[in-house]
Amino acid sequence: MKRYPMFIGGKWVDARSGEYFDDINPYTGEVYAHVAKGDERDADSAMAAAYEARKAWASTPPAQRAAVLSRAAAILEAERREFAEVLTSEGGGTSNKVLFEISQTMDLLHTAAADCKAILGSTYQTDPEKLSITVRSPKGTVVAISPWNFPLILSMYKVAYALGTGNTVVLKPSSETPVIGLKIGELFQKAGLTPGALNVVTGPGRQLGDALIADERCSLVTLTGSTETGRHVAKKAAERMKETVLELGGKNPLIILSDADLDLAVSTAAFGTFLHQGQICMSVGRIIIEAKAAQAFAEKLAKKAARLAKGDPALPQTVVGPLINDEQVRKVDQLVRDAVDKGAELLHGGRFEGRVYDPTVLLGVNPGMRIYHEEAFGPVASIIPVQDEIEALRVANDNEYGLSAAVLTRDIHKALHLAEGLEAGMVHVNDSTIHAEACCPFGGLKGSGHGREGGRFSIEAYTDLKWLTIQKGVKQYPF
């Protein structure tokens, strides 16, 4: 059984306690690896290393920082099979999901490498005798807390741009997928990153996370995780006047108007609902469809769900693999049972074997059911019939979340009306709710968090803005 120490100060070190914890394969239930179990002492060591390295890394020319990111992308491409094996074995990712995540991560690294050489300021027309500009500088040391569902790319959104803008980083990956976080440390070590510029600590999330947030050397906290965790992090950070970037949960609506192509709607809904077993913050959480098309759509979606291969994520034909743990299986099943008990029609699924939950289709979901409001994070299509686009918009916004949304229709006027009215940070017309590009703003509204990642939006998040003036001549004061 392989043992994974932590990555601190450019070295691989055991936890101060000497303890390791089990990293479990979610499909087999077997131990995949033993990983160092860090505590507050390890958090302190990682912050000390990052703080010590901050000036040297910040003074590294942007072209050299970009070269490190580009080399990391090349190494990732060369080692993509090894990374894919980890993403499947500890995260339960199917081959389609894993290959998509790795390719998107390589694109992200290349994009960040280009962006960090173009950190822009502004000039202002003020007093003619004064040059007035803005410049950006690194915040210092960034604490990055990443999730288990897309652990490679969602960690890299933080790490690549924080490093690219001259910050040092302490990465705390999820305890469900710690090895991929440590592989990121190894990736940058091979790419020639300055020792201490990136540190990876593993262990209990709340214990390590609170210690990192409380550390006075931390300048900013960036988290992708649940809304509950986001509220906790925001409170802890606010107590210390620290900035946060929070990308949290979602109950994302897919609105289907009756003029939409039905087969396209079924494919879009299936992809958005069942990719990675619905364990994506952008997954379709509610399918809101005009009532006159609802029955035909639901029956087609149920038939498609029945054809999807499920089971071992290591098999190339598998579409629906395991949920991450037994607790998540219980949660999904409770939500489905509650909906059925309260009148929803179960057209397919509602069963599980081990941690593999059948792709499930529910018709007639309403506000009296838990699944109408709660993020399932499982392969469950919740279909909500409505009378028209006006009711569709009301239902779509009837939720605490506001991450992603999508609209399917041939009527561009209705599409624009809905897009403008949807309370979401991202809206996609005639596409799925699952869509992200490295150069574009990624983030949500309401309970889905605040701040944006990607492209210049990450640059703004990870840098401080300074107004700078230079007096051209001798200024005359009134006294």
From TrEMBL:
NAD listed as a keyword: yes
Active-site residues from the entry: E247
Superkingdom: Bacteria
Q: Which residues form the Aldehyde dehydrogenase domain?
A: 12-467
Q: Which UniProt keywords apply?
A: Aromatic hydrocarbons catabolism, NAD, Oxidoreductase
Q: What is its EC number?
A: 1.2.1.65
Q: Please state what class of enzyme this protein is.
A: oxidoreductase
Q: In which pathway does it act?
A: Aromatic compound metabolism; naphthalene degradation
Q: What is this protein called?
A: Salicylaldehyde dehydrogenase
Q: Which organism is it from?
A: Desulfacinum infernum DSM 9756
